[in-house]
Amino acid sequence: MPVASIPVASILLTPFQPWKAHQISNSSDDLVAQLQFEGRLPPNSVWLRHVPVSFDLAPVQVIEKMRYHRPKVVVCCGMAEKRPYLSLEQQASWQQQTLTTDLDLSRLLEGTLLSKISYDAGQYVCNRLYYAVLEATQQYNCLQNWATQVIFVHVPVLSSANQRLVMDDFSKILMRLA
Q: N or C: which terminus of the chain has fewer CB atoms within 10 Å of its end residue's CB?
């Protein structure tokens, strides 16, 4: 009997669900949805929709999918209501420990117009998820000879004024990661 192959992904995208009553959607999920609709996601991308906004459930769901698909890159995505640009997070902190991505964020931002590097992933579930996925990736890369990299991207609220620029920047970043 043949052994089933692991469904390998180039990129695992993990946007959150809305978390406040006034939000009808989460801009990170809206962004990925629009890129999917336009056929602008890299080949073999896996989209884990509506990750729960939960300190406990979000890491469990994302790490489970990561272990299953063994993607080249995990792109965790969250909404940043007060930021006017796409933010690539350099680091995450948890319980007085800080982990950083191994990705060259400056290279990823080349040619983008509305994106910046951030050194503050916040104090909420985004930061916790990023830290947990960075930590799990370090363990799997070392123990199981994986080569997965991780980044967290905060997406601003999308508007008619910024949507095309944010989409173009995010698409460029994803293509470089793939």
A: N
